[in-house]
Specification:
The protein is of the alpha/beta class and 201 residues long. It has a six-stranded mixed β-sheet. It is globular. The chain starts with a strand and ends with a strand.
Length: 201
Amino acid sequence: MTRLWLVRHGESLLNAAARLQGWSDAPLTDRGRAQARERGLSLAAAGVRFDAVQAADGIRHRETARDVLDAMGERMPVIADPRWRELCFGAWEGARGHRFGRLLAEHGEVHAALVALAAVDPAAEHPDAVVERTLAALTEATDAGDEVLVVTSGLTILLLLDALGADLSHLEAGPAHLSVSTLHPSASGSWRVTRAAQPTL
């Protein structure tokens, strides 16, 4: 049975500048690349071997996947899939992160804040649309092998895990860089979350 490893990308230049990233893109910082290598070493030490690797189509996602694999001593293609992208922030792409912080404080939780943003900016993606596209990608990933790595973004992970009913009470903010979630499909077509945005294996 498939086990899907959902991993957030490493720190990017836009993360380091405290900018909203969304569909905007930037390469990893040196710290981000080190984070990815450390995660690869921890996966290898745990005896994990991937049958397939998928990633959102941003450079930060593909660099993270490649660095994880290199640290594991694995040689396989990284399949880029735009369905694993971060939520699009519309006109707020690249804006200072504190803008979303104020919206979050006003609405009390992430989903409601993102719904409010989409209501005033037609270019901003509705959070339910993110869940819809990632669930479709998730279902297809079950055909890729028994152990599948997917590198994506923080809000995407948060929205998907919440939609799957995961307990996220341990998160004070979004998933940390290179945090790990594991998901298993059931015979009924639903998903069971066995690890939710954990910083360690």
